[in-house]
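During the first year of the project, the team set up a workflow for recording each protein of interest as an amino acid sequence followed immediately by a discrete structure-token representation. This format lets reviewers and collaborators read both layers of information side by side without switching files. As required by the reporting guidelines, we include two representative entries from the current panel. The first entry is reproduced here exactly as it appears in our internal archive.
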Amino acid sequence: MFPGMGNMQLPVAERRLAEATKRAVQAAGGGKVCEDETGLSDTRISCFCSKNDPASISVRNAVRIDGIGALEDGHPHILNAMANLLGAVVIMLPDHDGSEPCLRSGVMALSIEVGDVSRAVSDALAGTGEDGTKVTVREAEAALDHLVDLERATARLRRQLERIGSPPEEAPP
């Protein structure tokens, strides 16, 4: 492990932040790209990505790395993980106009995510996992990942419906 921690594992929230940092670094093009962008050494960036190292990325560098990453599922990775630590959800506001196809895709995404959460929790409780009917840390983390995706899908659909339900704002004279 690392000095001062003995055989203790980092809390799940810190491990999730490290995993998110690793995904963001990969989406940004790797350690060398992030090193050039932030001025941090590749070794230091690797520490931020390790689930066994207590070092955490600064907000300034998280924004830089998330900002150069490709827009992929879960982006911005680090910001999403940080918000989740506070019990918040980050959604990238859609450019969609609230049309019927956008609402249908929003409802489909919501259904898929509900199914994923239900399946992860049911599988954990079914007794087919590593520890029988006892929910393991790994199973809980998997369910939490699906729950975050469900929260994002819900927030995106809410935003679409709110845009439809609110009259357009008039431009000032």
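The second entry, processed by the same pipeline in the following quarter, appears below.
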Amino acid sequence: MNREETINKINEVKAMNLPHMNYTKLKEYYGEISGFKETEENIIIMDEYLNNYLDPKNKAFENGCWVCGNKDVYLSWGIIHGIAYSNCCGLDYKCYYYSDDICEDKKLFNGRIDIILQYHLNGFEIKEIDE
């Protein structure tokens, strides 16, 4: 996929207005989070953080990767802890979530959360770089 095709694909998928992840969906899909206290403040913090990711159970993923269309997405670890990338197109996936990553000021939960989420397209852009 070349640069222009990538830009077109990102714009096409952005136009789909795909749903964001949130704490309610996280709990529904993956169950309770060890040590998490469901206060209004903590849920707001989790929702703000999870808003950066796509809801993994939306219909956009029925046909495989939204970038390249590959139905068999295999992930490999990159150089950043907790982040893997797709072997077919290089799209990053967040796999490990620590309390400190979500909120530096307070411990929200014990250990880590292990789920694979794609970054939401609202955070994607193509920047021009002068060479």
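For the second entry, the following points were noted during internal review. The chain has one domain: 3-123. Residues 3-123 form one domain. Both points are flagged for discussion at the upcoming steering committee meeting.
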